[in-house]
Amino acid sequence: DVKVTQSSRYLVKRTGEKVFLECVQDMDHENMFWYRQDPGLGLRLIYFSYDVKMKEKGDIPEGYSVSREKKERFSLILESASTNQTSMYLCASRRDAGYGYTFGSGTRLTVV
Amino acid sequence: AQSVTQPDIHITVSEGASLELRCNYSYGATPYLFWYVQSPGQGLQLLLKYFSGDTLVQGIKGFEAEFKRSQSSFNLRKPSVHWSDAAEYFCAVGAQTGGFKTIFGAGTRLFVKA
Predict the structure, then answer these.
(1) Neighbours of B111 (CB within 10 A)
(2) Blockwise average pLDDT, block size 10, chain A, 112 residues
(3) Does domain B3-113 have CATH number 2.60.40.10?
(4) What residue of A is the nearest CA neighbor of B92?
């Protein structure tokens, strides 16, 4: 089975800090995604990547950036964390559109 | 506009009873359709998916879903619910040709009572 590993389950960061969320997948998938999940708002796409060094903005990219230097790793960066970025962050990968996503366990980020 | 609607925010069923979770979508082309389940504090797990062909699809954990094109629906069913099925369920649609985005519904939280 494909495994998607997010480096942290829980993080607490201070306002203004630069935050890195790491995601690694082990099945050579081309496509990787970052979502945030908030109560009542469902899953919202932040960024995705369909190849190494390629990235595309999702629906809510403001305040975030991403990096994909290697196929298996997709990092989400909060340049200057703010309290409204407190959320559950979910990383996912997939082979192509027909296969569905494999999600990581999520990182619950609290910005204080 | 493309959208996915799960009309029920939460549902409570008794253990052993049948379950149906509703999903309606609006999509310009023939979509891929998915159901995911999320246990508390966890990521989402794929339950089943529909591409084409037989409109009744079987998934893991004893779930099935039926695609009804005329109703733009993809409802999830289980004949007998177990306490371990308590979770949040998400319906999702994605493009079959081109495109990378998948649209998720807001989710339905399932409570199971003894």
Answers:
(1) 11
(2) 87 97 93 92 92 92 96 97 97 86 95 98
(3) yes
(4) A100
